[in-house]
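Throughout our pipeline, every protein is held as a single compact record rather than as scattered files. The remainder of this section carries one protein's record, kept here as part of the documentation.

===
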Amino acid sequence: MINKYLIVIHTFNNPKLFLRLLSSINANKETRNNPILILDDSNRNCFSEMNLALLNQYPDILKFYVNKSIWHQIKNEWISPQIENVKIERYLNTIDLGKIGWNIYNARNIGLILSTIFLNNTSFSLSLDQDIIIDNKFSLHNVDNLLLTCTNIRGCPDLSRLEWIGLFLGYLCNMTNFSFTRVFDDYVNKLFWSLPTEHIGIILSRYTQFPILSFCQEKETTKTMTFPPREEYYGASFILSNSAINLYPFSNWYDNDWLFFKSIRGNLHDLHFYQSYVDHEQEKKEINSIKWLEFEETGKILNEIYYELVSRKMLTDNAYENIVNRRINIIENEIRYCKLILKDGSVDERLLTIINQILSNLQMLKVYVRKLNKTYLESQAKSFIYQIALWRELIYKIIHFKRTFYLTNV
């Protein structure tokens, strides 16, 4: 039996991807009969206007649209008057849509807040990023008893920029005279050895801004490619019971989805990816960006600091040094492969230029990670621990509101 569930869509400055996802939902006999909550995090009015126009093409879908202005109205006219707590209200005011820059954590938290309005404790939501496509055969069965799970993905694997670089370098090593053996048996290693080399080339060419390689022809669709499961669930397509919403918010740093899922799972159960697949078709990503590499590494280190603070109630200098050294070792591994490829010289001049750029950024990234301020990062992690307490109080108050608020259908 398939029960009704809420579909939560996060979209940002990309009506083209939003329309593609919406069309795929409408084409599926199951998903088109479920209510949809659209969280429009666009920071330009023109994109919000385009998204609203696209929604009008689907009059038969029960849909609820929330952008920055509508969210402000919900906060100010409905939620804030019920709180009567200055600290919680101050925290609520930091949760916003349409900010300049990276803001997915806020969009996901607003999705959780509004899900408490739409769902009861026996219901669940399917949360989708805008670069997901729902297959015609997609269906959710027997998930009512699950606190949390995640669908499998095809198409584009879920990788950080440093992992994309590792996959790219491994691919080039395979095209030259070097075998690809990483220091750690990490996900890049699993991915590399689970796919034919040609498939890795197709993935790199289709989803990254690395140059399309002359010996890689995109003859095969990525929809036929499946990947080994990741070490943790990912935020692009997850299923969450409404009873878990009050446990944790998403943090305001990179890899917040991993932190969220790992915190909810705790020691309750192992990873069990749901058997249905969705297609993850992201646009070409700029991988070799020092700005984003630094941002992502900071998030990964913050996650480790948070785990240390929660488990041991303190962050010693030795523990922090171990956390940093683990990240440094990964970066140094990629630096080593850059130097091997450059020394070999068997790739063409265009790729040699790319490798030199990667090497330069990795060397800067290593210095950046080493110079990160322990005290500042620890304060960020402690601040999030405090926010968790505020979040639980906020959700408790929303759940126990006496009045009912109905969002206007589009």
